[in-house]
């Protein structure tokens, strides 16, 4: 799935992201990923509470980043109108067959 966002620091960009996050907890997939860090890094300041879904998502990612000690700054990641963000889920390691 390719996702693209335009100027997240404008009301237009925030509205589009808010609509996108309405049925989702994360930018892609079912857990926080590099996509969430990349989008989070694009914010100059925390979003207004008027954008309920963005506000919820931003605060959740902010808490995860604080707990992990990871910073979205300095990653060199960009979110632009013509670029897309996509990530394949990593393959699960095989489970060993154990008998008790």
From TrEMBL:
SUPFAM superfamilies: GST C-terminal domain-like. GO terms for molecular function: guanyl-nucleotide exchange factor activity; translation elongation factor activity. This is Elongation factor 1-beta. Residues 74-100 are annotated as: Disordered. Residues 82-100 have a biased composition (Low complexity). It comes from Dendrobium nobile. One of its GO terms (cellular component) is eukaryotic translation elongation factor 1 complex. PANTHER family: EF-HAND AND COILED-COIL DOMAIN-CONTAINING FAMILY MEMBER, ELONGATION FACTOR 1-BETA.
